[in-house]
Amino acid sequence: MTDFTDITSVKQGAVARITVTRPDRLNAFRNQTADEMHQAIKACEADPDIRVVVLTGEGRAFGAGYDLSTIEPGEVPALDDVLERHFNPLVRAMRESRLPVVASVNGPCAGAMVGIALAADIVIASVEAYFYEPFVGIALVPDAGNTLFLSRILGRVRASGMMLLGDRISAETARDWGMVWAVCEQDELAAETDRIAGKLASLAPSAISATKRLIRSATEQDLKDQLDLERDLQGIAGRSPEMKEAIANFFAKRKAQ
Predict the structure, then answer these.
(1) How far apart are CA 143 and CA 167, in angstroms?
(2) Under DSSP, is residue 127 helix (H, G, I), strand (E, B) or coil?
(3) Residue 36 near residue 6, CB atoms below 8 Å
(4) What is the CATH number of the domain that holds 85?
(5) Buried/exposed 37-58: b ≥16 CB within 10 Å, e otherwise
(6) pTM above threshold 0.70
(7) What are phi and psi of 175, to 5 degrees?
(8) Which of 53, 73, 181, 241 is at a distance of 20 to 30 A from 173, taking alpha carbons?
């Protein structure tokens, strides 16, 4: 399949495995990462032999959210533009895909990567994984579909606690709250992912696609509007004095390490 810089996309029979390959950054997404994953998913869509897409991360993390190191010190980030051009198209492509998408969460899953994981159809996680919403702590708002997915899945009270307090939610708690389909030991995650992907690949593609469409209609009719609202409010937050201070603190901590 196509060569990429930030990801690999490998076809294994009827299953395409897309892996983020930035382990030195805990698989944090930069704009290019989101673009490449979007391209890979569209390529899978165009391949009639592919029936399932699996998303995961290389190394010990699924993804650490947006890579703040891609922002220059002192820069006022246009995060609304980042969402509009890079992240929101990926989330929409995952939800609108004819293919079932499995998120195999092998470790920490933070920020935008929580939204991307929840944009999958089936989420399975290692016991070593956790889910984390750091946005408000750095003067930002949740994005990548987080506000819709978490509010619909968890209800207002738990979603508010998760997004406002920024506590780490363990894989087991995420399963109990309905964010995750199954949790397994770290050394069993790959085999369980393969089992689920294999079962999905054995089912009628037309039934899978139609079922996805029905679920989307029932639960996500306003996803576009919510992504747009996240974009607009993130743009405002990204230009705030508090965000400027948060970026300065981020680079100060990196320099001290």
Answers:
(1) 17
(2) coil
(3) yes
(4) 3.90.226.10
(5) bbbbbebbbeeeebbbbbbbbb
(6) yes
(7) -65, -45
(8) 53
